[in-house]
Write a structure and sequence with these properties.
- The chain is an alpha/beta fold.
- It is built from 14 helices and 15 strands.
- The strands form 3 sheets. A 7-stranded parallel β-sheet has the order 3-2-1-6-7-8-9, sandwiched between helices. The protein has a 6-stranded parallel β-sheet with strand order 12-11-10-13-14-15, with helices on both faces. Strands 4-5 form a two-stranded antiparallel ribbon.
- It starts with a strand and ends in a 14-residue tail after the last helix.
């Protein structure tokens, strides 16, 4: 058996992160046999229950494992006993650099050089880099890059960041987000979800919404803070207006546990509440969520992976430009014009954008699907880059 340690954000709290791990495990298992995946996590039960089909071995990162999340003996042991180390997702940034409960970069910048010194190959696998704005963060990122044998990046912004920082590497490849190859739950499971949550019961078209609790950093046109209360009110008014204007039903699809609070606040303020349902990853797996996304006419999201998962299911996404990663992904699939800047955000502007995209959704879908197919292929083909490290283990 070849031991592969997979490092990402695998807490089970984010459906996008779960979809990344699921896609990675499936893609690599399709190419290689007799591989064993060791997955550091604060939620061993989630990893074991969700990915048992791939022979995963969760590595506990709790205090009783002598670890403060990523910082501790388990990550060192898991890396230094591996045959191959994969670092995936968007965990290499310098926000709260010295807080191991939030940040992975500082710890990995010390652990991965140990792997390199020991001759253990490290691959940044369909990863995203940054932001890295501090001197210490840039130095930490360079140590990680210098430790990697191969770097497979999922977005152009990551390549541009390395160029901006003057960090070079001899083997940088173009990849894509592993979550793009997420597969929906079976039709039978979808029917069970619809029955439990009373979804798609009318003959109306259905569109999805996703709201994000990160609003402190968002600003209005005058430069002032947008604020949580403003966002809640705007979202509720927008949903009511869209239901009236387009005569559609709405499903809120929340992909991160921490967003459930603000989603509840929005739902409480919506006047046409009988036309709105809620599905979240607190109750349902990412495959379940994908099965619901697949049946929508349009998806309006804030979280990057909500946009990724909806488009992966063939549904045109639109939304608010909350992160540079949103713009980067939407630019990649040709849907950048479906985003609205926070500085331009108002109920009228948001409703007009959503209505316009809704009317054009079939033409936009025809434009988007070929790009999605390309991105799915790039994500899947990243596994082929592991051949030099897993010789003799190909399927």
């Amino acid at each position: 058996m070849k031991k592969i340690t997979v490092i990402g954000n695998n807490s089970g709290r984010n459906a996008g992160d779960a979809a990344i791990l699921g896609g990675l495990l499936r893609d690599i298992s399709a190419h290689f046999k007799q591989v064993e995946f060791h997955v550091p996590t604060i939620n061993k039960k989630f990893v074991q229950d969700s990915f048992s089909a791939y022979g995963v071995k969760p590595v506990g990162l709790m205090p009783w494992n002598l670890s403060a999340k990523i910082l501790g003996l388990p990550i060192v042991h898991s890396v230094l006993t591996a045959d191959l180390v994969l670092v995936t997702d968007a965990i290499l940034f310098d926000r709260q650099l010295y807080n191991p409960l939030f940040n992975y970069l500082w710890t990995l910048s010390h652990v991965l050089p140990m792997a390199k010194k020991k001759g253990i190959p490290v691959v940044l696998y369909n990863s995203s880099l940054g932001p890295a704005t501090t001197k210490a963060g840039k130095e930490a990122l360079k140590r990680v890059i210098d430790s990697a044998d191969v770097i497979i990046l999922r977005d152009k912004e990551s390549v541009e960041l390395l160029e901006k920082l003057g960090i070079e590497h001899p083997d940088i490849a173009e990849g894509a987000d592993c979550a793009l190859n997420a597969e929906p739950a079976t039709d039978r499971r979808f029917d069970e979800i619809c029955s439990a949550e009373h979804l798609f019961e009318s003959d109306k078209s259905v569109i999805g919404f996703n709201v994000n609790s990160y609003v402190d950093a968002f600003v209005k046109e005058d430069g002032s803070s947008f604020g949580r209360e403003n966002l809640v009110s705007l979202y509720a008014e927008t949903v009511d207006s869209i239901i009236k204007k387009l005569d559609v039903d709405v499903i809120f699809i929340e992909t991160q546990h921490m967003d459930m609070g603000i989603a509840g606040q929005v739902l409480d303020k919506i006047k046409t509440r009988d036309r709105v349902k809620l599905v979240s990853n607190k109750k349902y797996s990412y495959e379940d969520i994908c099965s619901v996304l697949k049946r929508l006419e349009l998806f309006v999201g804030m979280r990057t992976h909500s946009l990724i998962l909806s488009s992966a299911m063939g549904v045109v996404p639109a939304g608010i430009l909350t992160y540079p990663k949103n713009r980067g992904y939407m630019r990649t699939i040709g849907m950048e014009n479906n985003l609205i800047e926070f500085r331009d955000l108002s109920v009228e502007n948001y409703v007009n954008l959503i209505a316009d995209v809704y009317e054009k959704r079939q033409d936009l879908k025809s434009e988007m699907i070929p790009q999605i197919v390309k991105e799915k292929t790039k994500a899947r083909d990243a596994a082929k880059r592991l051949q030099p490290f897993l010789r003799g283990f190909s399927n």
